[in-house]
Inverse folding.
């Protein structure tokens, strides 16, 4: 049974912050993973068809059933096979006995005064229910003309960018394609974004309306950014699969122009991201000299600026209508001088680019500070004069600790010995 307690934060924040805390026992889908049942969420269509053939369907029927299931899972958001009315009752039962359409559990859901929502989602491994579950954060940012879902690709991160909170959490594991999509499906459910879905009734913020779907319909989630926890290009296969499914027209149906993958600069996977996935690219640049970037974004030691910029120049599909976004976190007295701004403009010359200046979002224990607003203005001015419009990103959801680089979950990494003991 779902219960929601509205809690207000203490003292001066009380007027500004409300968070909804959901009971841990709540499962949107009481259908808890049991070993032996395979999840169908995250399978590509041919895999779904093959899986159905594996339970005795011939190829023609498997193909037809795969399309029906696809529509129920991604378009209608159904998690209960019994609601699939165009499938005979007997076969629905067989599906339910063999498969799962699992979603994450919601550990917490918080709503910021600015309408930003942050979820802590919990995933269990259906194949190894003895393994401890993992928790990841997903953030929804409503704006006038769009609603953006910020999705995680890993639990923790193997990289250690010195200004990023996620970077202080060791990599626990990659998320599967189903778990990446699970964040999208659960957020759509909570935002009433499926046909006939119920819009949030907490009255805190009206859900925004954009026109993101290929059908020109109005939806709460119009854009996806792979900017949550983890480095998406170190989990390339699963991210590719999830994004291809998210952009499939018969399902979630988000245009690839409305999906952005952000990377710290894993150069070998930049070309495949363009040619195989075809989504928009964002690069976490943050420094324009190798010596400084080595310190801020240590993967730079492996793939230095020259190689990174070259890969960007060759990004498949790049044009003035499909620009690369370069993210640049504003760190006081570290990377925010006029000379840095001029070098930034010089470095990107000739690349169809947008520049996104991100005010540094602090987190407990960091030694960095955000640049002063006058410094950011002056930096932005140089960037503006070079022809890049409105480059400063407004931080969202700071009161619920949901802004860029503030995500971190308490999931711990198990040693190999501990893992082996649990899966033996
Ligand atoms: N790993 C990927 C995507 C996740 S981070 C990447 O690094 O691109 C999403 C964005 O937030 C990145 O540009 C990241 O550098 C930035 N970021 C990280 N910590 C931040 C912080 N404390 N304040 C502002 N931006 C931050
Ligand atoms: Fe990982 Fe991105 Fe954070 Fe770097 S900025 S530690 S790559 S999540």
């Amino acid at each position: 049974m779902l219960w929601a307690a509205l809690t207000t934060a203490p003292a001066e924040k009380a007027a500004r912050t409300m968070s909804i805390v959901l009971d841990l026992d709540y499962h949107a889908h009481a259908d808890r993973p049991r070993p032996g049942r395979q999840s169908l969420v995250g399978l590509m269509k041919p895999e779904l068809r093959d899986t159905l053939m594996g339970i005795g369907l011939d190829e023609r029927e498997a193909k037809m059933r795969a399309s029906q299931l696809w529509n129920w899972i991604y378009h209608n958001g159904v998690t209960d096979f019994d609601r699939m009315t165009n499938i005979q009752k007997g076969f629905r039962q067989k599906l339910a006995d063999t498969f799962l359409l699992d979603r994450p559990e919601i550990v917490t859901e918080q709503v910021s005064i600015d309408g930003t929502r942050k979820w802590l989602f919990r995933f269990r491994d259906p194949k190894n229910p003895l393994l401890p579950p993992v928790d990841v954060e997903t953030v929804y940012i409503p704006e006038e003309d769009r609603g953006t879902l910020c999705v995680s690709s890993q639990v923790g991160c193997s990289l250690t960018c010195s200004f990023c909170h996620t970077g202080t959490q060791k990599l626990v594991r990659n998320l599967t394609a189903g778990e990446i999509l699970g964040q999208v499906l659960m957020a759509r459910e909570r935002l009433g974004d499926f046909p006939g879905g119920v819009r949030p009734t907490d009255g805190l913020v009206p859900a925004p309306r954009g026109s993101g779907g290929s059908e020109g319909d109005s939806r709460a989630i119009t854009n996806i950014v792979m900017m949550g926890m983890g480095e998406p290009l170190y989990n390339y296969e699963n991210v590719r699969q999830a994004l291809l499914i998210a952009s499939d027209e018969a399902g979630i149906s988000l245009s690839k122009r409305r999906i952005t993958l952000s990377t710290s600069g894993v150069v070998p996977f930049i070309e495949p991201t363009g040619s195989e996935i075809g989504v928009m690219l964002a690069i976490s640049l943050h420094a324009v000299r190798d010596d400084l970037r080595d310190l801020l974004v240590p993967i730079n030691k492996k793939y230095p600026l020259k190689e990174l910029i070259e890969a960007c120049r060759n990004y498949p599909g790049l044009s003035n209508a499909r620009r690369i976004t370069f993210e640049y976190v504003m760190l006081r007295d570290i990377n925010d001088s006029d000379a840095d701004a001029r070098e930034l403009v010089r470095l990107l010359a000739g690349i169809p680019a947008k520049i996104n200046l991100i005010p540094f979002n602090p987190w407990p224990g960091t030694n960095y500070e955000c640049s002063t607003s006058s410094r950011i203005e002056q930096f932005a001015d140089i960037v503006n004069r070079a022809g890049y419009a409105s480059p400063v990103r407004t931080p969202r959801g700071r009161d619920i600790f949901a802004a860029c680089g503030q995500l971190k979950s308490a999931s711990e990494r198990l040693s190999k010995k501990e893992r082996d003991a649990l899966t033996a």
About this structure: The first helix runs from residue 45 to 53. Confidence is low (pLDDT under 50) at residues 1-31, 203-208, 210-216. The pocket of S-adenosyl-L-homocysteine (ligand 1) is lined by residues 161, 163-164, 227, 231, 262-264, 284, 327, 329, 358, 360-361, 404-405 (CB under 6 Å).
